Amino acid sequence: MTTETLRADEAIAVRLMQAIRADAEIQCAPDALDLVSVTLDLSATADTPEALVYKPRIDRKTRTILFTSGSADGSKGAVMTATVVYRIRPAD
Hints:
By secondary structure, the protein is α+β, with helices and mostly antiparallel strands. Helices cover 23% and strands 47% of the residues.
């Protein structure tokens, strides 16, 4: 399966997770991240995932855990939100 064959809501989820992870990796570099949990909430539908704006946010960072979230926003507001927890693994 490729992202081209995903339904719009699935493609939004993938793009939102990519944006959140990229931001989290920048914030935690050079340490590595291990995914602990993800919660996705879909509040509206969008036919074109590429037209949305993906906004990641760091909510809280401890020595070992990163709490982050983000949204996929369209012209009428949030289409999807996500809450993600990562374990921070110190670089060797």
